[in-house]
Amino acid sequence: MTVVLAVPGNELHARELGARIDAPVVIPEVRQFPDGELYVRVEGELSGHDVILVGSLRGNGDSFLRIAFLAGTVRELGARRVGLVAPYLAYLRQDDRFRPGEGVTARYFGKLMSQVVDWLVTVDPHLHRLDSLEHIYSIPTVIARAAPAIARYITASVEHPVLIGPDAESVQWVSAVAAGCGAPFQILEKTRRGDRDVSITPPDGKWNGHTPVVIDDIVSTGKTMIEATRQLRAAGSSAPLCIAIHAVFADALEAELMSAGARAIITCDTVPHATNQICIADALAEAVRSRIS
């Protein structure tokens, strides 16, 4: 039997997955001791069962420790295999050494996680210099794609869309969404001078008269989307709709994005946020079935 275990904060994802794969969902007890250390407790019979942990990984050590401690607990309780469904997977940004002395943290994190769980499912990881998670994870990995759900949303909600990728990295997501909804697309060029300092080339104006939809995988500081929006409006386009797969939101950017001329920003529900409007539960369930069937 397969049991779904919700990492705290991911109960909705766990319930949606459990309903789609017909598996019971267990909500563990996880809390902090007064000194900040973690306490975990899992009720129920797990001996001989496969356990799927469901929890997004953010860029902090606490999210990893919760998963590691829960995985260790269910293994001691007799779980046969332990998989992880991480709708958002952090620690992929630093995948190379650009200056002497830098740590390649993507590789270190992949090694750590490969020692904790037996397989991994995630949604559209931030791969741009690597073409596969296999370069940094030694366990089987499956990528669930958000493009079909985004394409369905655009088809139902946007008239005469033209999809805009703000940089070369976005072409993989933008082209897939464009194929799904039959819309034209254009990729802009970005120059990054710092974590919060980017410039983007203006669009050519060819698709003015269409509704621009700016698509990127992660919205963190939001500077890329803000600058793309400014360039689109300066070129005479209508207010763009901005769509991101992962709503990391390191900065409070919604007001700045609106003032730059955006129509709205919406996101997939890989990371809980008020902007979530696109559900990726079906894609996750399909990916999970490939690991448990």
What does this 3D model show about the protein?
It is a single chain. By secondary structure, the protein is of the alpha/beta class. The protein contains eight helices and 16 strands. The model has no long low-confidence stretch (mean pLDDT 90). The strands form four sheets. The protein has a six-stranded parallel sheet, sandwiched between helices. A six-stranded parallel sheet has the order 10-9-13-14-15-16, with helices on both faces. A two-stranded antiparallel sheet has the order 3-4. It folds into two domains: 2-145 and 280-292, Rossmann fold (3-Layer(aba) Sandwich); 147-269, Rossmann fold, CATH 3.40.50. Helix 1 (11-21) crosses helix 8 and helix 4 packs across helix 5. The radius of gyration is 20 Å and the shape is globular. Strand 14, helix 7 and strand 15 form a beta-alpha-beta unit.
Task: Examine the secondary-structure arrangement and name the CATH architecture of the largest domain.
Answer: 3-Layer(aba) Sandwich
How would you describe the shape?
globular
CATH topology of the largest domain: Rossmann fold
Order of helices and strands: EHEEEEHEHEEHEHEEEEHEHEEH
Cα Rg: 20 Å
Q: How many domains?
A: 2
List unreliable stretches of 5+ residues.
none
Report strand order across the widest sheet. Answer: 2-1-5-6-7-8
